[in-house]
């Protein structure tokens, strides 16, 4: 009976974790049937370029949500850091890297400012970041003097619009892109195999080996197909390299470091974390410093993508990032969530937006659909918790 119960729990858990992937695949298939151009190399490249900054924000936002907080200011901070960078590079004629550094410093300072009020003064993050949303937006108007600045051009423009291609040649496609993705697939397979061996060593339930191999093969096939589409278009986008590095780093930080375990502990049970010796104030402070930093990276990418800075930039970005996290499996009550889940949630939002745009759906209808998807995702999370509580 125990073995049957373990298998049932394994299947249930895998279905729950795989539900977001199944939903993502279903949405992709739906839009590919409705519009043949959806899976074209050019459109797939555009999805990566157009929504990369939301995914960057979602990396920081999921850590905030895991800890039981929320951040409403990241959209305004994206606008402010982009405005500072534009002022340094465009208005004052400084090199592109000085604009990048200035934006990062502003993001870190803004994160430290909000982290101080949340961690050391004890004001709820919702209130602090709501105030930050207003303050940073007002500072953006002051920095830009209520006008737009453009263009960046040169190296700054290539941050979000450049590609790595042609390094290995290729008959009609970029071989370098395929090689990079192939290396990533091998790394993924090795990490999955090691994780499986570790579970076996600790006598934890794992899926049957044929199913494990099938999962690796399917992931590899999808990834290499995507790589081939990019290789047929313009090659490997610079912003995808940046995003991949951030995903890898923050996955390791959240899953393999003391800081990551403390974040989960705070969100899961604050009182228990305090009694266990977790320095809650310090962890909360650096959570907001971190999202301030990532908001600056998103601001750099967005201003590079749009080749300028506008006072109204970043509007509603915080809601897209929050939606990506909740759709990707983060719990409203904290303590649950993964960087990879937030990325899948962000891709679902990106695919829906892009697909509806190709179909000519009105902006108002797009907002309705996104809102309903978010509501259903949170309702599914609540249902799973209640079901687990009744066992």
Largest sheet: 2 strands, antiparallel
Rounded to the nearest angstrom, the radius of gyration is: 22 Å
User: Class by helix and strand content?
Assistant: mainly alpha
Shape: globular
Number of helical segments?
A: 15
Helix percentage range: over 70%
Question: CATH class, please?
Answer: Mainly Alpha
Write down the domain tally: 1
| CATH topology (level 3) name | ABC transporter involved in vitamin B12 uptake, BtuC
Mean pLDDT: 89
- Report the count of strand segments: 2
Order of helices and strands: HHHHHHEHHEHHHHHHH
The CATH architecture: Orthogonal Bundle
Distance between the termini: 16 Å
Strand order of the largest sheet: 1-2
Give unreliable regions as ranges: none
Q: State which percent range the strand residues make up.
A: under 5%
Characteristic key phrases:
391 residues, mainly alpha, ABC transporter involved in vitamin B12 uptake, BtuC, two-stranded antiparallel sheet, 1% strand
SSE blueprint:
Elements: H1 2-34, H2 41-66, H3 74-91, H4 96-121, H5 125-144, H6 154-161, E1 163-164, H7 175-201, H8 209-232, E2 236-237, H9 238-256, H10 258-268, H11 270-275, H12 280-306, H13 317-327, H14 339-358, H15 363-389
Antiparallel strand pairs: 1-2
Please provide a written account of the structure.
It comes from Actinotalea soli. This is Xylose transport system permease protein XylH. It is a single chain. With 391 residues, the protein is mostly helical. The chain has a single domain, classed as ABC transporter involved in vitamin B12 uptake, BtuC. It has 15 helices and two strands. Strands 1-2 form a two-stranded antiparallel ribbon.
């Amino acid at each position: 009976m125990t073995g049957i119960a373990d298998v049932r729990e394994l299947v249930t858990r895998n279905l729950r974790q795989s539900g977001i992937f199944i939903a993502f695949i279903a949405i992709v298939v739906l839009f590919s049937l409705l519009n043949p151009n959806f899976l074209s190399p050019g459109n797939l490249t555009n999805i990566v370029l157009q929504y990369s900054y939301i995914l960057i924000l979602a990396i920081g936002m999921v850590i905030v949500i895991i800890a039981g907080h929320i951040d409403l200011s990241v959209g305004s901070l994206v606008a402010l850091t982009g405005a500072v960078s534009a002022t340094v590079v465009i208005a004052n004629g400084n090199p592109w890297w000085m604009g990048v550094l200035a934006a990062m410093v502003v993001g870190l300072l803004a994160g430290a400012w909000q982290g101080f009020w949340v961690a050391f003064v004890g004001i709820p993050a919702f209130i602090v970041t709501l105030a930050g949303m207003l303050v940073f937006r007002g500072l953006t108007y002051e920095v830009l003097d209520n006008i737009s600045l453009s263009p960046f051009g040169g190296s700054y423009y290539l941050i979000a619009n450049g590609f790595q291609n042609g390094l290995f040649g290729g008959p009609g496609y970029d071989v370098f892109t395929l090689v990079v993705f192939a290396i990533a697939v091998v790394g993924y397979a090795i990490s999955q195999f090691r994780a499986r061996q570790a579970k076996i060593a600790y006598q934890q339930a794992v899926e049957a080996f044929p199913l494990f191999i099938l999962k690796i093969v399917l992931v590899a096939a999808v990834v290499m197909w995507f790589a081939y589409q990019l290789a047929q278009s313009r090659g490997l986008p610079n912003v995808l390299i940046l995003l991949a590095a951030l995903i890898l780093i923050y996955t390791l930080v959240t899953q393999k470091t003391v800081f990551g375990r403390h974040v989960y502990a705070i969100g899961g049970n604050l009182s228990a974390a305090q009694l266990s010796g977790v320095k809650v104030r310090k962890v909360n402070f650096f959570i907001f410093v971190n999202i301030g930093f990532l908001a600056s990276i998103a601001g750099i990418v967005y201003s590079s993508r749009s080749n300028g800075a506008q006072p109204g930039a970043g509007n509603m970005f915080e809601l897209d990032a929050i939606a990506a996290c909740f759709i990707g499996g983060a719990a409203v009550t904290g303590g649950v969530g993964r960087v990879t889940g937030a990325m899948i949630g962000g891709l679902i939002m990106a695919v829906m937006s892009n697909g509806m745009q190709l179909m000519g759906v009105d902006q108002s209808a797009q907002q309705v659909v996104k809102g309903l998807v978010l509501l259903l995702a949170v309702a599914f999370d609540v249902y799973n918790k209640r079901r687990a509580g009744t066992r």
